[in-house]
Amino acid sequence: MTFIKDPCGIVCVLVTYMAVLYADYVVTHWIILQTMPNSLWAPFHVVAFNTIVFLLAMAHLKAVLLDPGTVPLPQIRIDFSDLHSEKNYNHEREEWTMCTRCETYRPPRAHHCRICKRCIRRMDHHCPWINNCVGERNQKYFLQFLMYVCALAVYSIVLIVISWLYPCEDCHVDVSQAQSRMMHSVLLLLESALFGLFVIAIMVDQMHAILYDETAVEAVQQKGPYRIHRPKMALLAEVCGRGHPMLWMLPCTSLNRKHHDAPLLSHDV
């Protein structure tokens, strides 16, 4: 478990939960209970919408608090004077590099984050919306978080449009309540549209990074496709776990624990 004390990241996390709670409040109180009080669809939508909110919160908390794959620091100070000697030939051959800030060797595809102030294994980027790096151990939950935000935005827009197209004819409300419901509906519609489009763009970028096996850091460094070609499902399974693809949508512990529990610093240094 980890938590980065970054002011920008903490503000973004608070804004995320405020936006989700506001969407839950508007949908439950102003849309479902106000426009379909006597319909069997009301309890269904309440349960379905809050289930998505619960899964979103679980995935987000895991992405925030889970160690993204921090490379451990050495027990003793490492002497890098013989970096190019025969002793370190294996490190170079296996693409191990040296981080002068952490003063340690780091495994392939690990990069130093200036905000976390540590090297992160298979680091994609540092995301302020989870106040954490997106790395080897939490990319699955970050992708789930994006998916649930997108689902929540689409669900909110659908419920708002339905409430406008099929208003409750038996509901007797005064003008002030009708105006308040309209105001909250418009605000939620704008919020859902903006966050939905933003999240879809990030989700497409994440899927591209996974399916083409190239993180955002590697794309910026223009290293090119230097790894061997692997099937798309194998690349997805490497991130989401070796279980059934339906389980990839749940924010549960990855079934590929053997891979993630492997020591991050397995070389003698």
From TrEMBL:
EC number(s) from the headed UniProt entry: 2.3.1.225
Membrane topology of the entry: Multi-pass membrane protein
TM regions (residue ranges): 12-33, 39-59, 145-166, 186-204
Subcellular location: Membrane
Palmitoyltransferase DHHC domain span: 94-222
Pfam families: DHHC (PF01529)
GO CC entries: membrane
UniProt GO MF annotations: protein-cysteine S-palmitoyltransferase activity
Enzyme class: transferase
Catalytic activity from the UniProt record: L-cysteinyl-[protein] + hexadecanoyl-CoA = S-hexadecanoyl-L-cysteinyl-[protein] + CoA
Keyword annotations from UniProtKB, A to Z: Acyltransferase, Membrane, Transferase, Transmembrane, Transmembrane helix
Family under the similarity heading: Belongs to the DHHC palmitoyltransferase family.
Database matches in PANTHER family: PALMITOYLTRANSFERASE ZDHHC16
Free-text domain note: The DHHC domain is required for palmitoyltransferase activity.
Protein name: Palmitoyltransferase
Organism whose genome encodes this protein: Anopheles atroparvus (European mosquito)
